[in-house]
Design goal:
The chain is mainly α. Among the domains are: about 45 residues; about 35 residues. It has 4 helices and no strands. The longest helix has about 30 residues.
Length: about 120
């Protein structure tokens, strides 16, 4: 057990040394590749302006998303009315979608409990 702990410490030390040596160059390269997204000058006013633009752009997109939601709901209602004509592939896709939603719900519950399966902290 002690040898595994020593190995783990050694690997962590090597990783931190690598990050220390190459982190600065990686940071500079990342900024250079994404310089079209950087606003100059980076002032509080500019950040506030960008924040407001994001908020109101999102708010402006709500009517389009609302309309798309009702179109999707009408499509599902139409499928339900004509469920006798439903193909096996469509039913399978719907079942997989429902299973995926349930799995994401379960994962969210586990994350919300602090990554414990039973909900009790050990």
């Amino acid at each position: 057990m002690a040898s595994k702990l020593h190995q783990l410490q050694s690997k962590a030390c090597q990783a931190s040394q690598f990050a220390f040596k190459h982190g600065s160059s990686y940071y500079k390269q990342l900024l250079e590749q994404n310089k079209q997204y950087i606003q100059e000058p980076a002032t509080v006013e500019k950040c506030s302006l960008l924040s407001n633009q994001l908020l109101y752009t999102r708010l402006a997109s709500i009517p389009g998303r609302y309309e798309s939601f009702w179109k999707e709901l009408d499509y599902v209602k139409n499928l339900w009315k004509n469920r006798q004509e439903l193909k096996v592939e469509d039913a399978g896709i719907a079942a997989l979608f429902g299973l995926e939603c349930f799995a994401w719900f379960c994962a969210g519950e586990i994350v919300g409990r602090g990554f414990t399966i039973t909900g009790y902290y050990v």
